[in-house]
Amino acid sequence: SRTAVVIPAAGRGVRLGPGAPKALRTLNGTPMLIHAVRAMAASRAVSLVVVVAPPDGAAEVKNLLDAHALPERTDYLVVPGGETRQESVHLGLQALPEGIGTVLVHDAARPLVPVDTVDAVIEAVREGAVAVVPALPVADTVKEVEPAEKPGDPEQVVATPVRARLRAVQTPQGFDHDTLVNAHATIALTGEGATDDAGMVERLGAPVVVVPGHEEAFKVTRPLDLVLAEAVLARRRA
Ligand code: CTP
Ligand code: MG
Predict the structure, then answer these.
(1) Distance of alpha carbon 156 from alpha carbon 152, whole angstroms
(2) In chain numbering, where does the site feature Transition state stabilizer fall (predicted)?
(3) ipTM of the complex
């Protein structure tokens, strides 16, 4: 069966600061979204890419895809997104045609993920995992805090999880199609939220497996990340 990728790209990019929606900001002259689409379409296994555009930006995103060279073996669709990442992914899933067995969900904000990481995720799903996340060990010690009672009060540390057991998860996350669609439908009913797609599958009680992530799959979130992303691109071209 076919493999499709949903790329949520509908966020504003508040943490990046004022400017165009994050996915449309450029890295070395090319929109971040185009880098992300190319990164996914670089995998020969990917036959469809669904881009979830800013709600009022679907036409602009369609034009962008038309204006850039993309592999011809892959089909491209654009749908408008929602208020939250979760909603945007849900809208992307609803746009999938019949016959998709494996679905990847990939942040437009991770434009530089290497194709080997994409292929490793797809491979793990094809070998039978219902949910797969690429992940890396964390460098910083991570603390759980109790939020301050009123603004200005210090937060209190409540726990320090053992760092060796923590992983920072990236995208693309890969899923058996029906498992992810069920997870989204169930979570939408309960009104709960999750910050990643695998988190929703976990709540269904389904197993999620980890494959090695890659340092170049980092998420462009703050201005410093733009500097790093452009340096990585420059290094690739050198
Ligand atoms: N995203 C989306 N729809 C939303 C919010 C986020 O499709 N309503 C997408 C973003 O475009 C991004 C990915 O989800 O590709 C990861 O989200 P994040 O890095 O948080 O991006 P933004 O939400 O745009 O950034 P910020 O939180 O700083 O506003
Ligand atoms: Mg966000």
Answers:
(1) 12
(2) 15, 22
(3) 0.99
